[in-house]
Amino acid sequence: MQTSKNMTDRRIIRSKEALKQALLSLLSQKSFSSISITEIVELANYNRGTFYTHYDNKEALLDDILTPLMEELVASYRAPYGEVDVFHIDELPANAVKIFDHIHLNADVYTALFKSDVLPLVRDKMFSALKHIAMEDLDYPSGELNHELLVIYNMHALIGLVSHWIESGFQYPVTHMRDQLILMINWRPRSVKTQIKRTDKP
Questions:
Q1: Residue 122, domain member (yes or no)
Q2: Could you list the residue range(s) of the whole structural domain that residue 139 is in?
Q3: Are residues 113 and 25 in the same domain?
Q4: Within this chain, do residues 2 and 26 fall inside the same structural domain, yes or no?
Q5: Cβ 106 vs Cβ 72: under 8 Å
Q6: What is the DSSP string of 120-183?
């Protein structure tokens, strides 16, 4: 038998989820700054009192979308090495890469965010979250390489790849993205042929 507390908890979860979905839907139609609390609650089929029971403002609602999303992103990045003492990158199997699974599982959320004017904020949060755990979790034997600069380089590359995948409408399946990332990580060309068309000097 359900207790009164359980029923209340479920109502809270339902109402907060409805408010989140309403905001994401509105972000596909207009800028975040122009969205009103009234529009959010009307689309969610709740009232302003319900909104203010959970959130102080729409920024807090957006943060309630982004915070768990970033936590899941971090967990997916950490998945390949979370249970080992030494992470052998050159032995990493493609199916151990979970970041694309996370993105695809939350495709609707990421798509809505990436098509909105909060995209710079989202990308910044993604970068900050991944940079932080890479700096904290991984101790690269980088020799003369600056550890922080190496992490910044790697995180921008990864987020750029993920961003393109989202913006392309998930053009490739998760398995292809995993395989390609592994190939990129292990690709170390010593030279590359240039294809610049040059004009001969007179």
A1: yes
A2: 62-186
A3: no
A4: yes
A5: yes
A6: HHHHHHHHHHHHHHHHHH-----TTS-HHHHHHHHHHHHHHHHHHHHHTTS-S-HHHHHHHHHH
What is the value of pTM for the model shown?
0.88
How many Cβ atoms from other residues are within 10 Å of residue 102's Cβ? 19
Q: Which two tokens stand for residue 130?
A: 């991944």
> How far is the C-alpha of 95 from the C-alpha of 110, rounded, in Å?
22
Same-domain check for residues 96 and 11: no
The tokens for 106 are 């939350």
CATH of the domain at 23: 1.10.10
70 and 145 co-located in one domain: yes
How does pLDDT run along the chain (202 residues), one tens digit per residue?
456 566 568 888 999 999 999 999 999 999 999 999 999 999 999 999 999 999 999 999 999 999 999 999 999 999 999 888 888 888 889 999 999 999 999 999 999 999 999 999 999 999 999 999 999 998 877 678 898 999 999 999 999 999 999 999 999 999 999 999 999 998 887 777 888 887 765 5
What SS3 state is found at 29? coil
Residue 46 token pair: 């709740």
For 61, the enclosing helix (H) or strand (E) is: helix 58-78
Q: Is residue 200 part of a domain?
A: no
Q: Are residues 81 and 137 in the same domain?
A: yes
Spatial neighbors of 117 by CB under 8 A, at least 6 apart, are 27, 31, 32, 33
- Side chain identity at 32, as an amino acid letter? F
